[in-house]
Write a structure and sequence with these properties.
The protein is α+β, with helices and mostly antiparallel strands and 241 residues long. The chain has one domain: Jelly Rolls. Strands 1, 2, 3, 4, 5, 6, 7, 8, 9, 10, 11 and 12 form a twelve-stranded antiparallel sheet that branches. A hairpin with a 6-residue loop joins strand 8 and strand 9. It is globular, with a radius of gyration of 18 Å.
Length: 241
């Protein structure tokens, strides 16, 4: 077996990529029309389940928060508990005063990845997967820019922003089961004036959302997760350039 065949076989044990030209053309047509698409069951079921379990058992979460251009990131441990709670209240006040603001939890951005994370990155930055993305987006993508695992729990949110400068194509790989729209945590896209919601996506397990990031960006946000909701919203997020 040659190297190309090995890569293809390995990819097929990780992704459920659409194989027929008809399916690819349908995705391409949808992306050309709206600059957004979603692909169901993108991962092999076993891989999706492993990633969900990884997210649910992950211990090294960082509280990612900020407002305007000021960032705050600290581990969510006992030592930082008081400082993190003060920061969350500060961010909530900034949101009430209409600042760009956010608070959620993230991981997978370290120098010692787990074996599962290593394989995820390997496949998502593979030539085969990038070629697939280029087939349906025509964006001439060359590499994966950033990838991280996010967790949104009660009260977490990401206010309207544009992703400007992060890459040409953004992706959200949802890993949450049985998430109900009334829980919040919905990905909303806005018109350019940021006055109306034009499209919304509920996080569905093993669902990949792709959207173009033009030079000026595309306004979108993740709505507040309802306080005290028991479930947590997991997703792998990043950009291609």
């Amino acid at each position: 077996m040659n190297e190309s065949s090995e890569n293809s076989e390995n990819s097929q044990t990780f992704f459920n990529l659409p194989q027929s030209n008809q399916n690819k053309n349908e995705l391409k047509e949808k992306f050309n029309q709206t600059c957004k698409i979603q692909i169901s069951n993108i991962l092999v079921e076993e891989v999706a389940e492993l990633l969900l379990k990884y997210a649910q058992t992950q211990k090294n979460w960082i509280l990612a928060s900020g407002f305007d251009s000021i960032k705050y990131e600290k581990l969510t441990n006992k030592q930082n508990e008081k400082a993190n709670q003060i920061q969350i209240r500060n961010i909530q006040n900034k949101f009430k005063n209409d600042h760009f603001s956010y608070v959620f939890h993230r991981t997978m951005n370290n120098n010692r990845p787990s074996f599962l994370e290593f394989n995820l990155r390997k496949h998502m930055e593979s030539l085969e997967f990038i070629n697939f993305l280029n087939e349906i987006t025509d964006l001439q993508l060359t590499k994966l820019n950033t990838l991280f695992l996010s967790k949104y729990k009660g009260g977490d949110f990401l206010s309207p922003h544009c992703d400007k400068g992060n890459g040409k194509l953004a992706f959200v790989l949802n890993l949450t089961k049985n998430w109900k729209p009334q829980y919040g945590g919905i990905l909303h896209f806005l018109n350019e004036e940021k006055t109306e919601i034009i499209e919304s996506y509920n996080p569905i397990f093993n669902n990949l959302i792709l959207f173009k990031v033009p030079t000026h960006g595309i306004p979108h946000f993740v709505s507040h997760v309802v306080p005290y909701v028991k479930q947590e919203r997991y997703a792998i997020t990043g950009w291609y350039i």
